[in-house]
Amino acid sequence: MFIAMNRFKIVPGKEEDFITVWKNRETYLDEVPGFISFNLLQGDSNAEYTLFASHSTWQSREDFTHWTKSEAFRKAHGSAGGNKGLYLGHPEFEGFDTVI
C-alpha cells in the first residue's frame, strides 16, 4: 500500500471555510483504479496557522502516480487556486510506502 499526504497551513479563523471547500469538492477518486480511502485530518493550531492533512490510501505507489497523471486528477484540482485566502503557502506533499 501507499499513503499520500498533503499538509496544509490554514489561516487562523478560516478552518471551517477550508473544511467546507473539501466537503463540497468533487474528487473523482472513485474513477481511479487502486484508490482505497481518503481522510481530511485537522491538527493543532497556533497563532500562525492550523495544520490540516489530506490522507489518501492506495493499493500501490504506481496507482497513486497514475492518479496524478489522470484526467480525474486535473478535474479534481481545476479550481484549487480559487481559495488562496485560506492557505499559508503551498501544500507540502509526503508519500509513504507501507513496510509492515
UniProtKB/TrEMBL annotation:
It comes from the Bacteria. Pfam families: ABM. Keywords: Monooxygenase, Oxidoreductase. It comes from Oleiphilus messinensis. InterPro entries: ABM_dom, Dimeric_a/b-barrel, Heme-degrading_MO. This is Antibiotic biosynthesis monooxygenase family protein. Gene3D superfamilies: 3.30.70.100. The keyword Oxidoreductase applies. GO terms for molecular function: monooxygenase activity. The keyword Oxidoreductase applies. Residues 2-96 form the ABM domain.
